[in-house]
Amino acid sequence: MYKLIESADYDTLFAAYLADHDHYSGGVFSEYDLIISTLPEGDILLQKLADARGIASGVRPRYWTSFYWRLVEHITGYTPRGEQTPLNNTAIRWHLYTYLYRHGDTILADPAHPLHPHLHQHWPDATRLTADMTRRLWHYSGQLANLYSHYLNQRPDWLDAWQHDPPPALDDLLQGDGLKHQPAWLAGHYREHYQQQYRLWHATLATTYAARAERIRTFWHKLAHDDAARDKLPPYIPLYAPTNLTETTLRTLIRLGEYSEVRLYHLTAADGEYSDIVDSRWLRRLKLRDPARAEAQHYDHGNTLLSRYGKQQRDRARLLHAYSTDDNTTQHDAPAITVSNLLSAVQADIRSQNETHTAAAPHDAHDDSLRIHACHGTLRQAETLRGDIIAWLNADPTRRLSDILILLPDPIAEQSVLRAVFPGSGDYDGYRLPARIVGTPDTGTTSLWHSLAGHYTHLNGRYDAPTITDWLHNDDTAQSLGSDHEHIQRITTALIQAGYKRGFDSEHLQQTLHPDDHDHRYTYTYALDRLIAGVLMPDSDDDNRDTIPLPGLSLADLPVLEALAKHANRSRELRRKLAAHTPAQTWLADIRDTLHRDYQHAHDSTAWQTLNHALTSLEQQLSAHRDLAPQNEQLYLPLPFILDNIETHLSAQQNSREPSGVITIGGLTGLRNLPYKLIAFMNADHDRYPARQNDERYNLIDLDRPRPGDRNREQEDLAALLDSISRAGEAYWIYYNAAEPGDNEPRLPASPIQELLQYLDEQRAKAPRHYHITHPATPFEPDPAETRPAPLWHNVRQTLARPPCPALPFLTLCHAPLPAANPADPETLPLDQLIRDTLRSASTYARAHNISHDNHDDTPAAREPLAASALDNYHINDTINRALEEGRDPAARLARLPLLPAGISGNILLAQRLAENQAHYRALLAQSGCTTPPPLAEHTLDLGDTLLTARLPTSGNTWPRLSARRQKAKHQYRYWLEHLAWNARGTGGDSHIHYADGDEQLRALPAEDAAEQLRTWLAVRRSAQQQLWLAPIELMPAYLDNLGKKDGADKNRLLIHQWIDDDQNKADSGELWRHLWRGNEAILADHIAAALATYAPLLQPWLGHRA
């Protein structure tokens, strides 16, 4: 039996439901479905049920559409497809796009085609679909899907009529005079659209709809004639507090009531009958325009707020009472509201449908039960609300964060501000107010989705270094590769060093290059191959190899490189699937497999479960549709549209469970009927609330007479405001922008809020307006409404006003002798490492003491260079010179390194640089008396405590060196140490160095002297590892040169100060130097001078051996 149970009080209605639950449930472990309007509403009901009965695990909240279709499939013998129904919006959209895409060329080319007007209106000059049209076609398919979904839910009789060919005329289908009042040309336009919509429906979805209707007919036939089918029905079907009810749904419920106990629990807006009242504003205009009609019809608006906000409630009550009788309706009287403050007075007026309680309510300036706050911007709203909540919580120790609900017209648009003021985690400590935003994916879900989607979104993109490195730095991406953020950062830095700029591989990059341009040195896979070769074969540098290894990584990095290589192979496979027009269902399955395979680390997280649920839901939507239309199984949809649709679906799905103990934030219409002690409504601005109706020019429902259940966004928003006011237990606060921070122009609140203010002003004309508070524009200005400033801004203001205190030194600068070697702990050290560690002493100290410092590297380049910079020219010349010294072909080597500019300009530059450097090297060989360069080989020098390795000449007494560097101290130091290593073997001689701006010759010296000087520089390296080395090597030659001059002391002081102030003169990072010496600026120059006085003579032998 169908029964309507009504009450205006939430707790009273819940008590009635609880009594039926006890009667029909059959025990605490019995299961049944509870039909609800929103998932958060279901959570509240389950929580209250668990509090009352100790357990609620057997009650399953469901939406009506999914419940009804599961029931149909169960009775008719089919396997339910989860929670999804056929002809859902997603399936309709994908189906329409697939059909129009596949037949688009035929439709556009044939003006006589029934569907030609659909596409011709968008592309009047086109005769076939092109790739550029797909995005607009996808958008158009979404508009049509929304349209057909509206018809399916609100005008199913139209779709029944469309099953006939031809269908009835639009004039016969419409009720009322909506079409007759239109101009003739506009009426003709609507009739034409009607025919177009029917034809498309008939061509694409009529078969599916017919199969759906046939299954529903079978369902009712079995219930009427089959006892076994009736036994499968649930004995108890409750529908709790519906907010949007159509006549079709109500008639279905009443029909189900012939076989089961159907209970509809209606939360009314007021006591008594209110379905016959009219809008107070409309009645006011009518009395001015036609007072006789207003008097004759006996129109009454009851309570002003109820009549203005409650049109949706009135329509719902009118619909329910049209099908109710005394036998199937039970009215539960709500307890009287005790008027103790302004909010309770307003609620009592609405409940009783009069306007007497508000006027008689006590006038208390400290009454904060109903407040309307005028602020400057959403951030100030949130900050003011935060302070008000703290004061409200402190006023009563029984109040909890879970007693608070914050509503906004669009919480998704403001989620960054909301999360900044109300963090998602933490405990309330008088400062933090943790909150959960309902209906929006949290940051963890967003991060996981961006990581998962990155496997697919980058396939046909530019695949440039900034985009890919940013994706790899995502924590979920790093963990899916078996790494962490810090490790993957090191790998991406190495990828950039290996030359990665743009393009996935040669095939991908070739799509954007000239057919004759095959330069692929800057692609992702080429750089990755260099890194892998650098780990597995670091010494293999054969000119015949395709890839030149890049050393620098270790075997510990190999698992991550292997994961990146597997990802590269997987990307190649996906690109092949992309080119093969893979069906949408296959893409969804692939995305789901990737989530399960690569993101197992997040399996137990809420983010993973949310994303998995979204993918499952989409698959079930398509499967439910496919079951009724198997001929349409292979839906084609471009991969970017599938990903966009998943992201939209992810954002739109409601959270099924809300955590306890935190504030709940959500959309006004989605959380409208929930009882909370404190409800706050933010962003009640004129341009945000109420929502305007969408401009749906193809929707013909607007021409029809309105029916109960028709979706009207403005009426929904007004109804939600009325419900939220009625459900607030202790306080209801409204916040709006009285001025925008950008222009400071005064603004009025939303029209419904203005009407609320007008209502309060009229009822309390002689009382002060303590319920309307205007706050200052910034948190720094005094605010009489605040008991104290917000702690954050108060601390900021106090910090700014406090005089700066001197910073404590980061390190204690000291001057100690060089440490002795430890023969018991010898090490093998490359000569290049010794040179780097002594030249870049700040980095040496930071690395030895695990001091991390961000060098603020620039964003990697997004495209390959088309011209060589000064640094590029240096690397090119250096590579050519090294190849010439080693007797190798420079051109073959440079062709495989990402140094030359891309394209033809690189070939031209290579020819120029080869000619110049080969001429210089021939001249250098002639000058040094050599006919060929001396052969080089790896040698090891035993220096007692250290085995020093270096590539040195194996024969001859002259070593010609061609350098791409300028004749600066830091470069001369490098060649001096290499000269020392060569002579320390006992087979050395003279070194002839040709710099880019001059020549230098270093004379031979005894092997023992050279070895002793190398030991001294090894001691310098040990000292730099133990304490900050304050004798920069790049200053030593100039410092020694100034000592012999008349004003040498002054010049050395100037030299030191210039080095401190100018980063260009430093061999190491200036930012790192400042990070290490901070706090010692006053004594820094003196310490550097003392260190140079002691250690600058270490380079005196170099000056003595220069020819």
Automatic annotation (TrEMBL):
Keywords: ATP-binding, DNA damage, DNA repair, DNA-binding, Exonuclease, Helicase, Hydrolase, Nuclease, Nucleotide-binding. SUPFAM superfamilies: P-loop containing nucleoside triphosphate hydrolases (SSF52540), Restriction endonuclease-like (SSF52980). One of its GO terms (cellular component) is exodeoxyribonuclease V complex. GO terms for molecular function: ATP binding; DNA binding; exodeoxyribonuclease V activity; helicase activity. Pfam families: Exonuc_V_gamma (PF04257), RecC_C (PF17946). GO terms for biological process: DNA recombination; DNA repair. It comes from the Bacteria. Gene3D superfamilies: 1.10.10.160, 3.40.50.10930, P-loop containing nucleotide triphosphate hydrolases, PCRA, domain 4. Residues 827-1042 form the RecC C-terminal domain. InterPro entries: DExx_box_DNA_helicase_dom_sf, P-loop_NTPase, RecC, RecC_C, Restrct_endonuc-II-like. PANTHER family: RECBCD ENZYME SUBUNIT RECC. This is Putative exodeoxyribonuclease V, gamma subunit. It comes from Cardiobacterium valvarum F0432.
